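Look over this today:
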Amino acid sequence: MRYALYFTPPADDPLTRSAAQWLGRDAFSGETIAIEAADAFPAGTMASLTADPRRYGFHATLKAPFELAPDRTEAELIAAFEGFCAVHPAFDIPSIVVGQLGPFFALIPAETQPPLQDFATAVVETFEPFRAALTDADIARRKPERLSETQRAYLLRWGYPYVREEFRFHMTLTGPVEPEQADAMRELASSRFAAFTNKPLQISGLALFIEPERGAPFTVHTWQPLTGA
């Protein structure tokens, strides 16, 4: 069993429903959804391009997947999760856009937001005591030889290389897209998510996701609103 702390909108949010349709799975219900074809992307191609984010569910990583430390229990993790959400207030990202991170497409902030960066760091640090140490295989899967010195240090210290100043909020929409398909994918994603882009995104809650066994789809265990003053 692995756990992760992710941002995702509530289950009934229009963005959640649109993203589930795009990815072909709802992380709240676990329901598989038929993927729509597009002019440049037949249904099978879309299913392939969204396979990686589909397994994780629509989300932005805050605390990357981890196994529980030997001296911690799930009940303690849930209690800490509920306590964290009770003291942190909701806030807005002023504008989100369809962006590209290397070969991947995602919904990202139009500009870096310090409150968002600070919130992400708080999640990483607060839940660190619950994380079991990475195995050698876990470290190898992150391909540390491709990381910067800072990212390698963060991987060993926090279990994930993209934290603190390396953190980039992104809600992944695709796996790697070939360069010759990138323009068409950008156009398609921009069209499908036009109702949500260039508008604020409220960070209204936090989700505890679970992965029952390695390689299984992630699902939402608990979604909790941020209710701090």
User: Anything to note?
Assistant: The domain at 2-225 is CATH 3.90.1140.10 (Cyclic Phosphodiesterase; Chain: A,).
